[in-house]
Amino acid sequence: MSTTTSERVAGTVDTGEELPALQTIRRGMEISPELRQGLGVTLLLALVATIGQVVVPITIQQTLDHGLGPAGPDTGFMVRMGLLAAVAILATGVASYVMTTRLFTQAERGLATLRIKAFRHVHDLPLLTQNTERRGALVSRVTSDVDQVSQFLVFGGIFAIVSIGQIIVATVIMLVYSWQLCLVVWLCFAPLFLSLRWFQQRLSDAYGTVRRQVGALLSAIAEPVVGATVVRAYAVQDRTQQRIDDAIAAHQSASTKAQGFTAFSFSLGGLSGGLANAGVLIVGIWLGFADQISAGEVIAFAFLVTLFVMPVQMGTQILTDAQNALAGWRRVIGILDTPAELVDPGADGAVLPRGPIAVEFRDVGFAYPGGPPVLRDIDLAIAPGTRVAVVGETGSGKSTLAKLLTRLMDPTDGSVLLDDVDVRQISNASLRRSVVLVPQEGFLIDATIRENARWGRLGATDSEIRESAIELGLVDWLDGLPHGLDTVVGQRGESLSAGERQLVALLRAHLVDPDLLVLDEATSAVDPQLEMRMARALERLMSGRTSVTIAHRLSTAENADEVVVVDRGRIVQRGRHQDLVAEGGVYGNLHASWVAQHG
Ligand SMILES: Nc1ncnc2c1ncn2[C@@H]1O[C@H](COP(=O)(O)OP(=O)(O)OP(=O)(O)O)[C@@H](O)[C@H]1O
Predict the structure, then answer these.
(1) pLDDT in tens, 96-147
(2) Which of 274, 304, 336 is where one domain is finished?
(3) How far is the CA of 412 from the centre of ligand 1 (A)?
(4) Which tens digit of pLDDT belongs to each residue from 381-414?
(5) How far is the CA of 394 from the centre of ligand 1 (A)?
(6) Within a 10 A sphere around the Cβ of 92, how many other Cβ atoms?
(7) Digit-coded pLDDT (tens) for 362-371
(8) Ligand 1 centre from 193 Cα, in Å?
(9) Is there an atom of ligand 1 within 6 Å of 392 CB?
């Protein structure tokens, strides 16, 4: 677990930002063991590829110095050297190919594992955390951040290893030939080597700005697309267009600046190479006259210099990529290091028996991370099969109560019990089987009504879905739709009306066949006919089950067996509707405002 976890603000995702580079790599390898598999062989191949590169200059030197004797060319020797060079070139090519293939296969396998683990963990993160972390940012962590790691591991990583190897081996060979010429080469490249860190920092800053600008650009574009209706309704196209234009201009200038740094370091690499070659020739000839070096060695040097050029030209870019990849890796590891606070007891957990569930809140308190208490001293017992309506002013804590009841969050104090068992001890599978939450806005996927209903019971047949629709009195509505169960609901169910979306949500809930139904009643008004249909479906859905409804309608409170009144996080009144109306208090006020609205 990362060092930052302990300091993490409750309910937020670990950013992993303070994880040192080496620790990041170690943790990353632990999470994706595939990255380590066969790494030894891959590195061996990298060594073969590197050594192969320097064999050619050596054979040239040998041919020039020993193949062209005073007695004329030694054909046998030259052929042997030529063959050696050919074998070296072939070996380098094959080794590079196999190495790269192995590397990207392993890297992609390892990163697929990382993605899968991160996605699974996102599911286990407390709902609260998912709300706190911007959802888009979570998505980017498991997609583009992993891509950055992948890019680097496949291209940058191996290039870095081979490059460093190339420079080391070339330097050793140069030293064997002539330390003076080696010094010339190193002096020519020294300014670039020394400024690599400086370049890398500039590049990193520049690309950091580019990434931020990409984010700004995406949100500037997403806003008018997602909120197209509002943008048009308020005729603010010009303002949003201006934001997009500004974002595009800012992105363009940041990118140009970043590319400028890359181009500069690239050119400097070429310049250093040219200088080194010239220096080698001048000093080499001078040393040659002093009989300190052979012609073949000078030519070999010219070849060896080229082994320096590419690595240093790409060096700054590789360093930046490495930094980006590490940052990406840290962010994904950060997800995995965020504890799944809602621990599922799994197979060891209790299993709820079938039949209406008894509910109890025992001294429950709750506060959102860093916030004040939202629920206090909640003691509430609901007998099996009872129909309870929870009412209260907006912000009084009703939805929070529902989330605790369905274990989307755990209480900060006290406990929630179902059939006398703490919800924390009930296996998730059993909990999801027996308890259903129908939220205000049921989330519909862009698929058919059939697919959406099947979220309630995966694999439900058409006749089972129809049976549910018949029991809820929805079959004539379903048959009245243009394509029945095959009707596509559009993104987030946009092709249906708000009331129809609720009907699909009820159908889905009915297919679960729960023993405890928790409903967050929709506030949006629907046409009277649909309203009646919904009321009838709800009535049937609740029958024979324990139900807790967050009520916004007078009729729901009137029909409930018991009304629970929440005010500023506490239960202030309980009882039947008529009794509470007579009692007055908070319920009296709520009732009066309902009557004023609809009476
Ligand atoms: N994710 C959250 N993070 C921080 N505070 C929250 C969060 N959700 C709700 N709250 C706060 O908790 C309090 C209770 O909210 P809750 O949603 O339970 O009220 P409610 O009674 O259901 O309101 P409404 O009828 O408007 O839905 C409010 O003050 C709200 O600001």
Answers:
(1) 899 888 888 888 888 888 888 887 777 766 665 555 445 556 666 667 778 7
(2) 336
(3) 15
(4) 999 999 999 999 989 999 999 999 999 889 999 9
(5) 8
(6) 19
(7) 999 999 878 8
(8) 57
(9) yes
- Residue at 111 is within a domain: yes
Are 50 and 166 in contact, with CB atoms under 8 Å apart? Answer: yes
Asked if 562 contacts 391 with a C-beta cutoff of 8 angstroms, the reply is: no
- Write out the two tokens for 542: 């609740």
One domain, residues 135 and 219: yes
491 and 395 share one domain: yes
Residue 500 resides in a domain? yes
Mark which of 336, 367, 387 sits at the end of a domain: 336
The model's confidence at residue 277, banded by pLDDT at 50, 70 and 90, is: confident
pLDDT at 13: 55
* Distance of CA 368 from the midpoint of ligand 1 (Å): 9
CA distances in angstroms from 145 to 57, 100, 255, 329, listed in the order given: 41, 22, 19, 7
569 lines ligand 1 (CB under 6 A): no
Ligand 1 pocket, residue 12 CB under 6 Å: no
Candidates 34, 33, 35, 32; CA nearest to 114 is 32
386 in the same domain as 274 = no
Q: Ligand 1 test: best mutation among 368, 403, 404, most atoms within 8 Å of CB? A: 368
State which of 393, 400, 403, 404 you would mutate to test the pocket of ligand 1, scoring each by most atoms of that ligand within 8 A of its C-beta: 400
Atom of ligand 1 nearest to the CA of 401: 18
Instruction: Give the residue, by CA position, lying nearest to ligand 1 atom 26.
Output: 394
Using the atom order of ligand 1, give the atom closest to the CA of residue 397. 18
Q: Is 155 in the pocket of ligand 1 (CB under 6 A)?
A: no
End-to-end CA distance of the chain: 59
Same structural domain for residues 55 and 123?
yes
Q: Indicate if 370 and 480 belong to the same structural domain.
A: yes
Are the C-beta atoms of 398 and 551 separated by less than 8 Å? no
Reported ipTM? 0.96
Q: Is the CB of 399 under 6 A from ligand 1?
A: yes
For the Cβ of 394 lying below 6 angstroms from any atom of ligand 1, the answer is yes
Q: Does 262 share its domain with 363?
A: no
List of residues 6+ apart from 220 with CB closer than 8 A: 240, 243, 244, 246, 247
Domain that holds residue 51: 5-336
129 Cβ below 6 A of ligand 1: no
- Shared domain check, 404 and 314: no
Q: What is the DSSP string of 125-186?
A: S-HHHHHHS-HHHHHHHHTHHHHHHHHIIIIIIHHHHHHHHHHHHHHHHHHHH-HHHHHHHH
pTM of this prediction? 0.65
Q: How many residues does the chain have?
A: 599
- Looking at residue 380, which CATH number applies to its domain? 3.40.50.300
371 Cβ closer than 6 Å to some ligand 1 atom? yes
Distance 550 CA to ligand 1 centre (A): 13
Strand segments, DSSP code E, in 339-473 are: 359-367, 373-382, 387-392, 413-418, 421-422, 435-438
- 372 phi and psi angles, rounded to 5 deg: -75, 165
Q: Atom 7 in ligand 1: which residue has the minimum CA distance?
A: 368
* Token pair listed for 232: 């048009």
